[in-house]
Each structure stands twice: as structure tokens, then as C-alpha cells.
# Entry
Amino acid sequence: MKELVISFSVILLLHVPGSLGLYDEFTGDISRFLINFSTRETALFTEYPTGVIVDNATYDFVIVGSGPSGSVLANRLSENPEWNILLLEAGEEPSWVTDIPVACGALEYSDYNWGYTCEPQSGFCRDCMDGILQYPHGRVLGGSSIINYMIYTRGNRLDFDRWAAMGNPGWSFDDILPYFLKLESAHLAIKDDGYHNNDGPLSISDASYRSKLVDVYVKASQEAGLPYVDNNGKNQIGVSYVQTTTKNGKRSDAENAYLRPIRNRNNIKIQKASRATKILIDSCSKTAYGVEYVNDGKTYRALATKEVISSAGSFNSPQLLMLSGIGPKTHLEQLGIPVQSDLPVGKKMYDHALFPGLVFQLNDSIPINLVEEIVNPLTYIQYSEGKGFLTSSNTVEAISYVKTNISTDPDDSYPDIELVMYGISPAADHGVLIRRNYNIDQNTYDKVFKPLESKYTYQVSPMLLHPKSLGRIELRSSNPLHPPKFFANYFTDPENEDIETLIAGIREIQKINRTPTMQKYNATLVRTPLPGCEDIEFDSDAYWECAIRSIISSLYHQTATCKMGPKNDTEAVVDHKLKVHGIKGLRVIDVSVIPVPMTAHTVAVAYMVGERASDIIKNDYGI
Ligand SMILES: Cc1cc2nc3c(=O)[nH]c(=O)nc-3n(C[C@H](O)[C@H](O)[C@H](O)COP(=O)(O)OP(=O)(O)OC[C@H]3O[C@@H](n4cnc5c(N)ncnc54)[C@H](O)[C@@H]3O)c2cc1C
Ligand SMILES: *[C@@H]1O[C@H](CO)[C@@H](O)[C@H](O)[C@H]1NC(C)=O
Ligand SMILES: *[C@@H]1O[C@H](CO)[C@@H](O)[C@H](O)[C@H]1NC(C)=O
Ligand SMILES: *[C@@H]1O[C@H](CO)[C@@H](O)[C@H](O)[C@H]1NC(C)=O
Ligand SMILES: *[C@@H]1O[C@H](CO)[C@@H](O)[C@H](O)[C@H]1NC(C)=O
Ligand SMILES: *[C@@H]1O[C@H](CO)[C@@H](O)[C@H](O)[C@H]1NC(C)=O
Ligand SMILES: *[C@@H]1O[C@H](CO)[C@@H](O)[C@H](O)[C@H]1NC(C)=O
# Structure
């Protein structure tokens, strides 16, 4: 009951006033306040009592960060009763609100997000709010798996075979498939034999809510030449209904799958609201022996007799390493940080850019009608049965992997574009929230999307899988509480291949929409030009380049900031056992070690890395 009331109030208060035109200009503050209020009022806050903090307490392993990788490690390492584990997490506990799949976009405006933004750069985000690309990132027990969109995709076999070929034995697809199996409990109608399992901690399910549109779209995609596949199975290229990290219509995440069941083990301490500020390293022996952290304004130390593990994620692991003297020598020296190991930390960052500006209009009510769903009391009753609109993963309904005709990859099974199909468009909530998730500014919204508010529309967005443009992360200062500096560097590759690939993705989407099946609903591309692109012939390649440089979103899949690779790889920070080069007793275990841009969203691989690394560590100690 409590759950019902809360879900109702959050969704209602967030979306309806705007949708009904009660205020013209929504300010994010209202959303932020409501989410803030509701999460605080309803947070579990009792499941993980901190108790008395003992300074200089000693453990075998100290793990920093409770995202998917860190939570798996905490769970698996504490299976050994001989080991004492401390898990430190900067954020608080998740809440009822975070269980509601459709609420995820709003969680970006809560304390569960670190709230990072990129440095403003030219060449992209011309029509983004304040010209800035947002980089949301989870700060909560469970990490980004608490605020993410729950899309579950493992990646292409070749991704992992390429990790191995880069000098990382033990990470080929055949090596890591057992770990993908170990972590999941699959509840899927269509799945390939040998690629799924049903007794792991994390629940993977088909969406229990589907629009009429998605069935049409999946059929049309097949008509356009994409086979129907289990994209976590044998072949990746093709179209699939989305597989999600949900269980009975609620979010399945690192906290409820891996931490909650073990929180009472007496050899593990799970300590929230504790932010690591430094890894303690003995500079003579180059050995990590603990961490310094802040809880409630006070500084403490936790000591590790065996290892310190940084699982702080692709942004904060590089930050923590650099604060501790592990990073590019000149950068650290400029900030006055004594250098412990000169490594290319943060120098390379892959990311997945998604173009949210491709919208189609239909002549029938087959897309999701968001406003109708929100005001319908049935929505809330259905949720209590694990069904209905609130169980939707932010309205993402189908995922396709395609290899466009401009890809130069020698392998035919390696896609270069993902098509993310949503049962709505940014007009669906009348500009309240969705446009903000995509960084779309008010002026652009009013011109392009507002006229669509009463129409039947939906969106398919191309996501660039293997960018040639590389981002990077630097420290802003030596103050551990300052956010790092993010340079997304989108579309800076000299050959302009990233833009061209996204345009090739747009052409694939247009092909799907030209099929007889989509034309039964008169699927028509919305032709309102984006501000600043009016003078270019609509639908020309030049037009789409202009449009892509106007509005863009990250899909938050940053990797490689602490890249895995052998010692002679000049980009590598950790080796294939995820040990930091040049420092003893220290590993980085999270998505920052992934050496390639994944052909996937990254949460699946984050769990897998945690599972695989747990076995590597147990092996190293003969367990
Ligand atoms: C908005 C959003 C949507 C996404 N949607 C999807 C999706 O649909 N599908 C998908 O596959 N992937 C998605 N992702 C990406 C995916 O969630 C991440 O790749 C994944 O969670 C990474 O896991 P991780 O273990 O590396 O670390 P993270 O999830 O980043 O967790 C790191 C944890 O460490 C904590 N931490 C950081 N610094 C410190 C410190 N100094 N001291 C203590 N604790 C610290 C953080 O608070 C956080 O809890 C999304 C991400 C975001 C942000
Ligand atoms: C969220 O809550 C915290 C603590 O109560 C408060 O400091 C912060 O200002 C709130 N933020 C918003 C946007 O209301
Ligand atoms: C913990 O160790 C540090 C460094 O040795 C020391 O300065 C501090 O006083 C110790 N704290 C306690 C409570 O013993
Ligand atoms: C790719 O296909 C598009 C049409 O969708 C065509 O215009 C273009 O010439 C093709 N490019 C190559 C390299 O074949
Ligand atoms: C199809 O869509 C176009 C453009 O929106 C519109 O002009 C036309 O009337 C529609 N046709 C039907 C049959 O709905
Ligand atoms: C939608 O348009 C198609 C043709 O483009 C037409 O056959 C169909 O009847 C129209 N449907 C409605 C509900 O108008
Ligand atoms: C790195 O060393 C391995 C052998 O350990 C060798 O096979 C590889 O070619 C080397 N790579 C580079 C870039 O030198």
C-alpha cells in the first residue's frame, strides 16, 4: 500500500502538472525536490546500520564502491569465512522509488546521482541545456544499477575475444560466458540454448509491459532485413524485444541481488555514506595498505592486510587513483600530488553517444500514451501485480544491432550501431522530464517537439557503438571532494567517421519505417528542422550532421579509464588480473578496466567483471 501511494505521488507529481499545462516552464527543481523528498522519506535506511565506526580498523580486503562490480565482489569474497571484508560506499541506500522501473529518468534529479557534467566544448551540444552534456552516475548502494535504464545486453563475442587478443588472457568469450551464466536468472520467452541460466542472483526478464507499437516495429524490422535474435545469445545482429534487469516488474540491481541477501554475514561490513578520498600507499615498498575516507565530515582510515580494491566506477576509480598518486606524472605534479606510479589513468575514455532527434509520427494510437497511463488508476493497481506502465524500463522496448554499409570491420558479425526503440518520443510528457534526460533545451523543445504533444509519435535513436573520438578525465584539483573534469570530445575524429556512422544508423531506421508494416500506420518522419539547421536541405547527410551536433546524449557507458592491458601496452593501467601496474596490493575492478568500447550497454559486463575477478582473487590465494 505504502508502495502504491509513493509510486503514485512521485509519478503523478512529476509528470502530470506539466502534462496538463499547469506550469509552462518546468524547472528541474520541482522534480529534484520531489524525488529528494520521496527517496529520503522512504529510503530503507535501516537495512545497513553503520554502527560505531572504528578508526584504523583492519580487514583482509577493503572494497571502495558498491556498484555492480563492487557488490559482486563483496558477496563472493565474503563467501570465504576466513576473510574479513569492508565495503565502502559514498551514497545512501536505495528506496521504494528506485524499484519502480519507469521512474528511472527522474532519478537523475535526485541525490542518487553524482550530478557530473562535461566541460563545455564546441562541435556538439549546440542545443543542449546550457550547452552542456550531462554525465549522470549512481551514488548509492548498488551504484548506477539503481538509477540505470535496466537494459540488459552482454556484448558481442568479439568484444571479449579482442580483450584477450590485446594481451589479457582469461577474458575471451569462452572464458567469460560461464560468469554471465553464473550471475543471471533468466525469465525470457525467447532465448538461445546454452546462453542462459536460471539460478543466479540477478533477474533478467522480458518487459512485462509492451505497447502495441513495439510488436509492429519488431515485425517491420524483420521485414527490413533484420533477423529476430536473442541479442544475449548466439548471434547479436538483428532485432530483439528488450531484456531487462527486472524481477516481477521491479528493478533487479546490485543492492537487492548481491548485497541485501548477505548483509548479515558477520565477516562483511557494508558501510554507506563513506567516501574514500585516498588509497594509502607505502611509497618505499609501493604497496597499498588501506584507504582514507570521510563519513559525516570526519576522516577515518581502514587498513587492508591483503588488498585494496577500487570498484568506484569509470569516473571515480580513475579519480581515486590519481588522488593517490597513480596517474599521468605531469598532471599529478602540476597539482602537487606525489607520484607513486606514472600510468595513463583517465587518458582514454570510450563512451556511447545517442542521437535523440529522430521522431516518427503515426496515424493511430499504438505508441504508449504516457499521460493517459499516468492518470489511469489501473496503472497503480497493475504495478502491485508486477505489471503495467510503471514496470516499463523508461519506455525502451526494442534493441537492434546492425552493421551499417559503411562499417570497415572485417567481421560480418560485428555491429557498429545500436538502434534503441522507445514507445514514446520526447513530446510524450510535454517537455517535463524526458527532454532533460536528453539535454534538449527549452527553445529546441518548443520548436520541434511541442507541436507533437497531441500526436501519436515515437522515437528510434541510433547509438554509436565504437567511437573513434576519445574522451578523457582529469582531476580538477587535488581536493578529493571536487568533481573530476570530463572531456567528452564527441565527434572530434579527423575523418568524421563517428558522424557518418550515426547517419548510416539513421538511414537504417528510415528503412524500417518505410516497410509496408510501418506504413499501415503511415509512419512519417517528423520534418521540423532543429534550430540552427533550417538552412540545410532537410534529410540530407549535411542536415543530419548539423542535427547530431545540435542535440546529443550520452548513454552512460564510459569505459577504459583504467584500461586493462599488459605492461608493454602504453595505455594500460591494470594487468589481466586487474592489478595496478607498479603497485602491490591494489586492483581496480569495475567497468573502467574494459579495454574496448563495448558492443552493448555496460551493466551486464560490470557484473561479469565482478564475478570473474572474484574467482581470480580466490585463485590467487588458493581458495
Ligand atoms: C543514468 C544511467 C543509465 C544507464 N542505463 C544502463 C542500461 O540501461 N543498461 C546498462 O547495461 N547500463 C546502463 N548504464 C551503465 C551501467 O549502469 C554502468 O556501466 C554500471 O553500473 C557500472 O558499474 P560499476 O560497478 O563499474 O560502477 P558504478 O555503477 O559506477 O558504481 C560505482 C559506485 O562507487 C561509488 N563510489 C564512487 N566513488 C567513491 C568513493 N570515493 N568512495 C566510496 N564510494 C564511491 C559510487 O557512489 C557508486 O555507487 C546506465 C548508467 C547510468 C548512469
Ligand atoms: C535534498 O535533500 C538534502 C538533505 O535534506 C538537501 O540538503 C538538499 O538541498 C535537497 N535538494 C533539493 C533539490 O531539494
Ligand atoms: C589511526 O592511525 C593514524 C595513522 O597512524 C593515526 O594518526 C590516528 O591517530 C589513528 N587513530 C586512532 C583512533 O588510533
Ligand atoms: C550505403 O547505403 C546508402 C543508402 O542507405 C547509400 O546512399 C550509400 O551510398 C551506401 N554506402 C556504401 C559505402 O555502400
Ligand atoms: C500520413 O501522414 C502524412 C504526414 O503526416 C499526412 O499528410 C497524411 O494525411 C497521412 N495519411 C493518412 C492516411 O493518415
Ligand atoms: C493510416 O494510414 C494508412 C495509410 O498510410 C491507412 O491505410 C490507414 O487506414 C490509416 N489509419 C487510420 C487509423 O487512419
Ligand atoms: C607485449 O609483449 C608481448 C609478450 O609478452 C608481445 O607478444 C607483444 O607483441 C608486446 N606488445 C607490444 C605492443 O610491444
